[in-house]
Structures are given as C-alpha cells and as structure tokens.
C-alpha cells in the first residue's frame, strides 16, 4: 500500500486537510473493461500462448498475470480491422498447426510442444505470420513488464522518486 | 349573486379599475427597473479577466491582491487543485492501454492526437477536434485546454527569460514593428513572478539568457556536463546549461503559503500535480486570488465579445454565452483583461464589433489578427556516446538541458534572420535480449543490460511575424454558440527552412566534435501550432497606426482594455513564452490599477 502512504504523506506535506477523492482508495480494482473475444476458445488459446512466451518460473508467468486480457484489449481498441483480422487468424492458426504437428489442440499440447510451435512461428518467412507473432510477442512483453506484479516486485518502479542524481556508479551485479 | 350598478356607479368603478391597472403597471415598471438595476449591479465588477490560464491567473491574482472585485470568466469547466486531477495518483498498470489512446479516439481527433502530451492519462484536459472547430487555410494544429487553469496544467514548464537581444530584434533586423519596451522594463516583473511561481535554475551569467530568481538547479548528468565542456572548448559563445523550469526544488515560505510542496520528480506533470510541485494556475494563482475574497470565478462562460458602448464611447463590459444554458448575458467592469490564449483573444476582439470599431475592437490600424507567428520545432538530432559507461542517473528529472540561442546575436552572420535555441539531453540506455521465447526471454527481460548513453536535441526557432500570417473570422461558419469560426493562415517560410538546415549542421558539428556516434537528424515536418507557442495578432508597438497595444499592453484606442497573453507579442524570440506572459500580466495590472486610482480610465 505504498501509494496510500504516499497520499497521506502528501496531505501532510501540504500542511492542510486534503480529503482524498473516491478514486484514491480502490486502487487495486482497476477495471479490466469488457473485452470482446472474437471466437470460442480464443481467449484460452491466447492465455496459453502468452504463458508460453513468458512462463511461470519461481515468479508468475504472463498467463497468471492477466497479460492475455491486456493483449486482447490492445488489439481490440488500438489497432485497425486488418491487424485485428490477422491477429484472430493467427490465434486460430495456432490450433490448426498444433493439430497438424501434434494431433491435439494448442491448449492440450505439452509446454515443450507449445514453445516449439511458437519458436517456429518466430522464424517464419510468411509476412502475415511474422506480423501476427511480432504483435503477440511485443504486446505480451509490454503487458508483462508493465503489470503490477512485475513493476512492484521485480523491477521496483518508483512512483514518487523525489530525486534526480545526474551521475551515479552503475550498480554491480 | 348579481349586482346591478347604476351607469354612474359603473363609470366610477371603471375609473377605479383603470386607475388600479395604471398603478399596477407603474409598480411593475418600477419593480422591473429596480430589478434591472439590481441585476446590473450584481453583474458589475471592478475588473473582468477573460481566461484563467497562465496569464489570466496572474491577472486575477494581481487585481484581487490590489483589492479589485474581479470576475474571472472561463469557457470550460472548473478544475479544482488536486480533487479534479482524476489520474494523478494512478499507477502505470492502472491505465487500460498503458497511456496509448484507443484508435476510436485518435481517429476522431487527428489534430490533438499529434500533440506529444495527449495521452490516456491527460486526454481530459485537451479540447477534442470537434468541440471547437476552426478553418485551416493552411495546416495548423490548434492545441487548446478549455478548463480552469487552461494549458497551465499541461505546459512543458520551461521558463527562460527573454533577453535584450530578443526585444531589440525587430528594430535591428527590420521586421514587424519595434517593441515598445526593452529588457530593463520587464526585468523586475520577471523577478516578481519567478519568486512566486518557483523557478529552478542555475545562475549561468549568459547575456542571451538573463539569470533570474532561482531555486536550486536540477543536475546536469555526466554526459550533459561532458558536452557542456566540449562545446565550451570549441565555441566561446555556445553554452549548455540546465533548463530553468517552474518546479519547486526548494520550497520557500511563499510557496508553502500557497499550499504547495517540493517537486517529487514524478515527471507525470500533465495529470495535474497533487504536491503543487510545478506552477499551474490551479495550484497557485487561482486559489491565491480566491483567498483574497475578491474573486468570482465563473466557469462555463464562453465570451462572445467585449462591449464597446458607442454612446458612452468606452468599453463597459463583456458579453458571455453560458455554455450550459446557451443564454447570452452581460457583465460590466471598469477594466477588462483579455487572457483567452493567443488565438482566442484575437477571435474575441475581432468579434467585438461596434459603430466605433466596425473591424474589431481597437483595430483602427487594421493589423488585428495579423503578424501571427510561432516557434519552429521541426528538427531534432539524436546520437550515442560511448563514454561514462560506469555511470548512470538515479531518479527522474522534470527538466532538461538547454542551449541558448547563439546565431545572429551580436551581428547578422547567416543567410537567415534571427536564430534558434535548442533542448539537449542525455540518458543512459538499457536493453534486454528479446530473441527467443520462454524462460530465457523472461530471464533476459528481468536482467537489463546497460548500453551506451543516448543523446538528443530539438530546435526551437524564432519565426518572423508577417502580415500574410493571419487569423480572421470565417464569414459563414459558426461554432456551437453561434460565434464565427476562426480561419487560420500561418505557414513556414524560406527563413524557417534555412534555419532548420543551419540547426542540423551546427548541432551535428557540435555532436561530432564531442565524439558522439550514430548521429541522425530528423525533420518531423510538424504543422505550425503543434509547438503550442502561437503568438501575435494583437501586437504591442509604439505607433497606434501599426499596433493595437501600447507599452503597457493597453489598447491604444480603448484605454481600459488590456491584453497580456500571447496575442500581445510583437515578435517571438526563441524562448518558451509563458514566463514572459506572466511578467507582462503582473506589470500591466500594476499600471492599470494605478491609472484607475488616478481616475484616468
């Protein structure tokens, strides 16, 4: 609850009674909005795909952190129809390719098989496949790196740094 | 029951009735007249300020401090400090699109979407394209903020003083008209506003960029300092300094008295700052003016025109359309300050028509709306530096390095007029290996490596005010309030193109001499207006035949009207103009109130 403390500190710093507006307290309940999935099962495929790109280790993977919802929202809200179609086709293609290579749905394939399939997509020379996978991977990385879990626990984002030092030694590590 | 009356009785009764009706009518008239007088009284103030942005806020503060009952009219909604900053305490992950705007928004708003600061966290402070349409005779990105505080919530907060070389420019280089004031006239007022606003900066002792009343400067980082030294060795008249900016690095009592605290280096200023760490009307001048008890703030008040009473032969007030009810109403005052932001100030004055001023208020000279100019921000340069690899920066800085103008300062030395200042900044780059997927990708994303330092610069060029660069009222098109739409005809010229070329050559040379690598220049071809430094149209000058305002920002032809925003500027210099508008506002109010007390207005 670093932010709540900071807000209290802020009120103190200003030396006045600052009544905090309603939005200042429900900060963990960021609305995810109504994200429309374009096909049955696509949400599940996407979730498995982002988890394969950034999997659970000793810390949560992208699937667990809700990155699939972020990716879907970005594709739905911020890209044109053509890109959205390429994306939907790409997600459907994961299942088709999995069935062809492993004889089962993408979500049923082993983790190794999922990874292998995605690695092949990344190497593909087909431009549509390339742009689908590029978008999926970039948005997955963005969603993961800007998730509350990663920014709070792993990259230690400072909301209120309160300082700027122009020249400090690079930390050894 | 029926009562039969004699003819005589009926006549008497009729007379009584008529007499009663007359009496009632005269009472009604009497009441009405008194109501109008009372209502007129209630709508009469000592002063009216049109606009609550960076200059209007200052006019309001200075007027109310001098005891004048002041009405501040703002066309947009109220934005109260802290409580009306809905995104100010949102964490990065709380934004659905991580600051990117949905396609629906950018498609509907191509103009404002080109503004660097229009994003998910700040979009509510910008005017959307369809809210206040205008006519582009040439492409012009008109970026606006219609709310209490105006664009002072959104500005880049750079506060460099103008120098004698800027005020002497038009006279020396024979363009526009001579400024009616010099640096020494405005210098004490710079000090006045700097102390109150809170300006961080370093006393650099450079004559092209006079020192001011500074709070502790921000650090230049290792590479910026290195570049400063490298440039100083090569060129005796080129300097790299830390920017002067409206951030409280070291609060004084006057800032605490405003309820403001030290800047916390969050660098998300455009959301509004809960600390009041940077200067905005909302955090500073407006609450200060309110505290005097002399200010009435009226949001949702779209000014239609300034009223010139042909019988009284003077300006008596302002016509306002209530944005909610669309009702037209009038407010009256002895002094009117027009601070609607440069182009809207032009629009209001051009729409203020009377028998005396058929071509717009104060426009005897015919120059109203003409000689509009801006800042040329088109070119930028980037590069890398391979030194200081054992060093980096820590924290964040709401400021950057600055290169004061060095071209054509002491004499004309190039084939273009005037010159440019430039921003300069360096930052340590980090990267991670993004090849592959799976556990190795995850590990490398969380294990960032340091790269070279990135370095970058952007130009801020002076543009020349010309008669052909104008704004005017469209004859047919109206806005939602029935007010004519503004027609804008402002473009780059050959002088700007030459200046872009010179900036790229000179800064590339300075980068090369410093050993920077991978140097790339870029001309973004951004539209005029995107710099958000549009100025002029209601210029100051010595001669009423060629200017609208005198040396006190006072209308030559309507002495109780003052214009102290960007519209009043005779030329543009290279420096960010807001600090100068603040100083002009304070200076002009001081003069106006003295004149009022001497009964000269």
The geometry of chain A reads as elongated
Radius of gyration of chain A: 21 Å
Number of strands of chain A: 1
Provide the helix percentage of chain B: 25-40%
User: What coarse outline of chain B follows from CA principal-axis ratios?
Assistant: globular
CA-atom Rg of chain B in angstroms: 28 Å
Keywords:
heterodimer, A: 173 residues, mainly alpha, elongated, B: 601 residues, alpha/beta, seven-stranded mixed sheet, seven-stranded antiparallel sheet, 21% strand, globular
Task: Describe this entry's structure for a reader.
The complex is a heterodimer of chains A (about 170) and B (about 600). Chain A is mainly alpha-helical and about 170 residues long. In chain A, about 55% of the residues lie in helices and about 5% in strands. In chain B, helix 2 runs parallel beside helix 10, helix 2 (about 55-65) runs parallel beside helix 14 (about 580-595) and helix 7 packs across helix 14. In chain B, about 25% of the residues lie in helices and about 20% in strands. Chain B has helices at about 5-40, 55-65, 105-110, 110-115, 165, 170-175, 185-195, 220-235, 255, 285-290, 340-350, 440-445, 495-515, 580-595; strands at about 45-50, 70-75, 135, 200, 215, 240, 295-300, 300-310, 315-320, 330-340, 370-375, 375, 380-385, 390-395, 400-405, 420-430, 450-460, 470-480, 485-490, 515-525, 535, 560-565. Chain B is globular and about 115 Å long. Chain B has 14 helices and 22 strands. The interface between A and B is large, with 60 and 56 residues.
What is the secondary structure topology, with strand pairs?
The complex is a heterodimer of chains A (173) and B (601).
Chain A: H1 2-14, H2 42-53, H3 67-78, H4 81-102, H5 111-123, H6 127-145, H7 148-154, E1 164-169
Helix pairs in contact in A: 2-3, 2-5, 3-6, 4-5, 4-6, 5-6
Chain B: H1 7-42, E1 44-50, H2 54-65, E2 70-73, H3 103-108, H4 110-113, E3 135-136, H5 164-167, H6 169-173, H7 183-197, E4 199-200, E5 214-215, H8 222-234, E6 241-242, H9 253-257, H10 285-291, E7 295-298, E8 301-309, E9 314-322, E10 328-338, H11 342-350, E11 370-373, E12 375-376, E13 379-385, E14 391-395, E15 401-403, E16 420-431, H12 439-445, E17 449-462, E18 470-478, E19 484-489, H13 494-513, E20 517-523, E21 535-537, E22 561-563, H14 578-597
Parallel strand pairs in B: 1-2, 1-10, 2-7, 3-19, 4-5, 10-22
Antiparallel strand pairs in B: 6-15, 8-9, 9-10, 11-21, 12-17, 13-17, 13-20, 15-16, 16-17, 18-19
């Amino acid at each position: 609850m670093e932010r709540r403390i900071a807000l209290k500190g802020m009120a103190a710093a200003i030396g006045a009674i600052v009544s905090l507006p309603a939005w200042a307290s429900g900060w963990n309940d960021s609305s995810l909005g109504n994200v429309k999935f374009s096909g049955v099962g696509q949400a599940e495929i996407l979730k498995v795909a982002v988890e394969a790109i950034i999997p659970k280790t000793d810390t949560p993977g992208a699937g667990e952190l809700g990155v699939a919802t972020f990716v879907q929202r970005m594709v739905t809200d911020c890209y044109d129809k053509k890109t959205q179609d390429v994306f939907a086709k790409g997600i459907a293609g994961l299942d088709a390719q999995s069935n062809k290579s492993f004889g089962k749905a993408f979500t049923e394939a082993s983790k190794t098989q999922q990874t292998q399939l995605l690695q092949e997509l990344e190497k593909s020379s087909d431009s549509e496949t390339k742009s689908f996978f590029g978008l999926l991977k970039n948005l997955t990385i963005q969603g993961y790196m800007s998730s509350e879990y990663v920014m709070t626990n792993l990259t230690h984002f400072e909301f209120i740094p309160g300082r700027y030092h122009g020249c400090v030694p690079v930390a050894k590590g | 029951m029926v009562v039969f009356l004699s003819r005589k009785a009926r006549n008497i009764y009729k007379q009584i009735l008529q007499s009663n009706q007359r009496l009632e009518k005269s009472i009604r008239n009497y009441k009405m007249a008194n109501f109008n007088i009372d209502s007129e009284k209630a709508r009469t103030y000592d002063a009216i300020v049109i606009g609550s942005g960076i200059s209007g806020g200052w006019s309001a503060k200075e007027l109310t401090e001098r005891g004048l009952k002041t009405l501040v009219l703002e066309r947009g909604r109220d934005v109260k400090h802290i409580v009306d900053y809905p995104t100010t305490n949102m964490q990065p992950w709380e934004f659905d699109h991580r600051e990117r705007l949905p396609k629906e928004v950018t498609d509907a708003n191509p103009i404002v979407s080109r503004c660097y600061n229009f994003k998910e966290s700040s979009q509510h402070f910008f005017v959307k394209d369809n809210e206040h349409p205008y006519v582009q005779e040439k492409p012009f990105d008109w970026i606006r903020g219609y709310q209490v505080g105006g664009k002072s919530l959104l500005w880049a907060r750079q506060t460099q003083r103008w120098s004698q070389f800027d005020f002497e420019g038009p006279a020396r280089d024979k363009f526009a008209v001579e400024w009616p004031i010099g640096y020494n006239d405005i210098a004490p007022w710079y000090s006045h506003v700097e102390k109150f606003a809170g300006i961080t900066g370093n006393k650099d002792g450079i004559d092209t960029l006079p020192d001011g009343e500074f709070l502790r400067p921000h650090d230049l980082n290792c590479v910026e300092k290195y570049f400063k030294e490298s440039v100083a060795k090569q060129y005796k008249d080129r300097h790299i300094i830390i920017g002067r900016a409206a951030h409280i690095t070291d609060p004084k009592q006057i800032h605490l008295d405003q309820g403001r605290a030290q800047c916390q280096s969050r660098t998300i200023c455009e959301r509004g700052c809960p600390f009041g760490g940077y200067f905005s009307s909302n955090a500073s001048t407006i609450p200060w003016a309110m505290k005097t008890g002399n200010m009435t703030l009226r949001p949702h008040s779209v000014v239609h025109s300034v009223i010139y009473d042909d019988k009284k032969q003077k300006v008596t007030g302002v016509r306002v359309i209530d944005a909610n009810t669309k009702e037209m109403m009038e407010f009256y005052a002895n002094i009117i300050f027009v601070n609607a932001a440069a182009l809207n100030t032009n629009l209001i004055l051009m729409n203020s028509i009377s028998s005396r001023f058929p071509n717009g208020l104060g426009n005897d000279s015919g120059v109203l709306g003409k000689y509009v100019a801006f800042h040329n921000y088109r070119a930028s340069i980037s590069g890398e530096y391979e030194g200081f690899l054992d060093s980096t920066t820590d924290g964040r800085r709401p400021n950057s390095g600055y290169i004061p103008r060095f071209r054509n300062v002491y004499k004309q030395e190039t084939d273009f007029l005037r010159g440019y200042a430039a921003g300069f900044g360096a930052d340590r780059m980090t990267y991670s290996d993004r090849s592959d997927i799976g556990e190795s990708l995850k590990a490398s994303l969380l294990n960032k490596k340091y790269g070279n330092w990135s370095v970058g610069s952007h130009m801020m060029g002076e543009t020349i005010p010309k008669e052909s660069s104008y704004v005017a009222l469209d004859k047919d098109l109206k806005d939602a309030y029935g007010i004519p739409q503004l027609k804008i005809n402002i473009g780059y010229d050959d002088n700007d193109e030459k200046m872009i070329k010179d900036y790229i050559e000179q800064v590339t040379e300075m980068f090369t001499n410093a050993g920077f690598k991978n140097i790339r220049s870029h001309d973004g071809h951004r539209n005029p207006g995107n710099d958000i430094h549009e100025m002029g149209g209601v210029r100051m000058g010595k001669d009423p035949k060629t200017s609208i305002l005198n040396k006190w920002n006072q209308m030559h032809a309507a002495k109780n009207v003052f214009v102290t925003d960007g519209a009043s500027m005779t030329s543009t210099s290279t420096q960010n103009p807001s600090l100068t508008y603040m100083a002009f506002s304070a200076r002009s109010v001081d003069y106006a109130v003295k004149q009022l007390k001497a009964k000269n207005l």
